[in-house]
Amino acid sequence: MVALLPLLDAILQHLTLVFTSLAIGISLATPLAILSVFYKRVSYVVLTIINMAQSIPSFALVAIIVPLVGIGFVPGIVAIVLGSIVPIVKNMYVGLAKTDIALIDTGKGMGLTDLQIVRYVRLPLAYPAIFAGLKFSAVIANGIAVLTAIIGSGGLGRVIFEGLASFNINKTLSGAIPAILIALSLDMIFSIAEKKLKSKSVY
Amino acid sequence: MTKIYKESKAINDLSFEICKGELFVILGSSGSGKTTTLRLINRLIDPDEGAVYLNSNDTKTMDPVKLRRKIGYVIQQIGLFPHMTVKDNIGLIPRLEKWKEEDISNKVDELLTLVALPPDLFRYRYPNQLSGGQQQRVGLARALVMDPPLLLMDEPFGALDPLLRMQLQNEFLSIKRKLDKTIVFVTHDIEESFILADRIGVMHGGKMLQIGTPSELLFEPSNEIVSKIIGAENKFKAIRFLQAKDVMIPLDKSCLIESDISCKETINMMISHKIDSCIIKKSNSDIAQVSLIELLNEKDKAKSILAIGNKLNVFASNDTLSSIISLLKSSNESMAVIIDRGNVLGIVRINSVLMNLV
Amino acid sequence: MAAILDTIISVWTTHQITLRTIQHLQMFSIALAISIIIGVALAILVYSNPRLANVWFNVLNIIETIPELALFIFLLPILGLGEKPTIVACILYSILPIMRNAYTGLAHVSNEYIEIAKAIGLTKNEILLKIRLPMALPLISSGIRVAVVYIMGIVTLGGLIAAGGLGVPLQAGIYRYDIPAIIIAALWVGTLGVIFDFIAWVIESRLARRFNPW
After folding, report:
1. Interface test with A, best of C7, C15, C73, C81 (most A CBs within 10 A)
2. Contacts of A142 in chain C (CB under 8 A)
3. Which residue numbers delimit the ABC transmembrane type-1 domain (chain A) (predicted)?
């Protein structure tokens, strides 16, 4: 038998892990992406690191957090942010950098500063790309959040690991099924947002 | 061959015959239906009405794949597959026809030699390592690999620069003489059609306006559109006013050699610049021309480039066209070089000048 | 310095990292090979039967969103613990990027090449195998590069379900709070991931350059 209340608790904890990490991810990615748009050298460094980070297995990332930050909820968040920030930065940078030059010139002609152009021209036009990145990032965050249970972050992963340790299939499934449902709903929500923004944008 | 075809009149009640062994040029502007006509012949498209007959057999009764393997096909620009070497491009159909590997190699070498590309240098190159002219030669070699009795060519020299185009046209004519093939050649270039054709068919708006030899079209155009297309009216008058600089083909700087380098260095330079022919300036009055093939055939590769080449007539840029033509005629040369205050500006080909006038 | 070297050697031997690496790469190569075969085969199938394309891509897209560990859980009752579910999970994740790129590559060969291939007398199948497929190679290889990264990640997770490989020392390090083991194993796995991605990138860009039409 699987206790319902602890499961609900785990789900809540899991969602907290995912969304906190996404929020931190966005707030870190935004300045990085904007700086990359304006400074060639920053963009080179950022993109190189990001491309390398993408090829590191997530388990290795989670493990290396232990000596660096320790174990528990916060280290879990750090691991999830590190593992899932790449698509946000990448898509945000590409979205911001690929804005039609003519529109930017129009903005300049109207007397907007560089930052105002980002705020009112580049950013709105980049929304579809940014949301595509957020979707991918959310799906990855959800996957790593399952994994970080191994370093004591709690969440649905803990249910799965406990089930695995005690060979309790029902328990593992009670952790895995909500995790899958969360993945599908994240994918769906961000897909809808992406589509809505795309139909609104000029292109 | 006879065909009638209608499709929003891209081809409109078209009917003509091509004789065995002739080089038949279909001349027309874009949209005249000339390329469509070519594609009807090898069944890349099928007519809505009428039929194409090959040796009085209706092509509709033949398997299109087998039919196409018996018809060579050369097109402008992207004709070679970029993922295959020269050898694989040429040997593709023989390989699919399960020839022996040895036979394929021999055939490829034979054809490369025919189109003046030394097999040892070119066999294993990829198309992006070839110049435009070399690609076009490989394209021709590929079209000839199954020894087809019929060859279709769709503006094969259209994308090349004028100097190279003329060289390839001449080479093509001499290759054609060696082979006994029926060739249908599509072009919008009147000069090219006059140089190459046994007979020319002028197409316009999906119709064949007139078929005839170059001189028939020039002197007996059947209607005004033909004479307009051929441009027979007023160009002869210009011969007295035109100067050398008006009719010359400007010379690309990379085609000009002024320093004392060896044949070998010149060959390397020409291959890396992808040029087939270059001008050697020995002094202000002594200027010669040499082609890559001639250099490759030169026994002593260490010899100075200044010691070889075919000497050219030299004219100033304000010499009149009539004086150039008469001098070239009397010395029986076909090419001259134009200089201005010691700088080589360009070259004049008598054929192209005359054709321009026509 | 010598102390660090000693620690590395001792971790390397106690955790049998050489053996784990061999297991790791074995699973990696098997999974990659099968993914490529299935991915390209499915792409060809879907290319010649495009009505099913959307169904295929939607199903694979859903699999792609499932957390790897959750997928393991679903494979356990069918395949048990160990290498089998790990390799199958790798394949399930990797088919999509390979198949999607291969499909795009097959479908987007420039029409001029198809025309000339037809004109010199290639049949439909010959055009697919001799022209479309080789010309799709650059795109296929970039799909494979994505798959390489996926498979590296999932094989590492396989350590959690008794598949062996380099996930084992990572897991052991975390459970025993053995910091040197964690650092060495994580750095080693990370380095392998970066190296394999780099190799895939080199192959990809070589192909892209060769196939770049002039």
Report:
1. C73
2. 65, 67
3. 11-190
Angle (deg, nearest 10), helices C17-48 and C167-175? 130
pLDDT of residue A138: 94
Domain span at C171: 2-211
The rounded distance, in Å, linking the Cα atoms of C197 and C176 is: 31
Q: CA A141, CA C167: separation in Å to the nearest integer?
A: 20
Q: What is the DSSP letter of B262?
A: B
Residue C142 to residue C107: CA distance in whole angstroms? 16
Torsion angle (degrees, nearest 10) of CA A181, A183, A189, A192 = -110
The parent domain of residue B36 ranges over 23-230
pLDDT tens digits, residue range B298-338? 888 888 888 888 888 888 877 877 778 777 777 777 788 88
CATH number at A37 reads 1.10.3720.10
ipTM value: 0.88
Distance of CA A52 to the CA centre of its chain: 17
Same domain, B209 and B246: no
Per residue in B193-232, pLDDT tens?
877 888 889 888 888 888 887 767 776 778 888 777 776 5
A-B interface (Cβ pairs under 8 Å ≥ 3): no
3-state secondary structure (DSSP) of residue B266? helix
Q: Which residue from B162, B200, B202 is spatially nearest to B184, judged by alpha carbons?
A: B200
Distance CA A88, CA A131 (A): 8
SS in 3 state form for B302-325? CCEHHHCCEECEEEECCCEHHHHH
pTM of the predicted model, to two decimals? 0.74
Q: CA of A143: which chain C residue's CA is closest?
A: C67
Domain count, chain B: 2
Cα gap C121→B145, rounded to integer Å? 12
CA distance B88 to A171: 60
Is B80 in contact with B135 (CB distance < 8 Å)? yes
Q: Any idea of the CA torsion for A150, A151, A155, A161, to the nearest 10 degrees?
A: 20
How many residues are given for chain B?
358
Output the DSSP codes for chain C: -HHHHHHHHHHHHHTTHHHHHHHHHHHHHHHHHHHHHHHHHHHHHHHHSGGGHHHHHHHHHHHHHS-HHHHHHHHHHHH-SSHHHHHHHHHHHHHHHHHHHHHHHHHTS-HHHHHHHHHTT--HHHIIIIIIHHHHHHHHHHHHHHHHHHHHHHHHHHGGGT--STHHHHHHHHHTT-HHHHHHHHHHHHHHHHHHHHHHHHHHHHHHHHH---
CB contact under 8 A, A59 and C157: yes
For residue A15, count other CB atoms closer than 10 A to its CB: 17
User: Considering CB atoms only, which of C67, C179, C196 is closest to A67?
Assistant: C179
Q: Indicate yes or no: CB of B82 within 8 angstroms of CB of C212.
A: yes
User: Whole-angstrom Cα distance, residue B253 to residue B264?
Assistant: 19
Domain range spanning residue A132?
Answer: 4-200
CATH of the domain at B102: 3.40.50.300
Residue B10 domain-assigned?
no
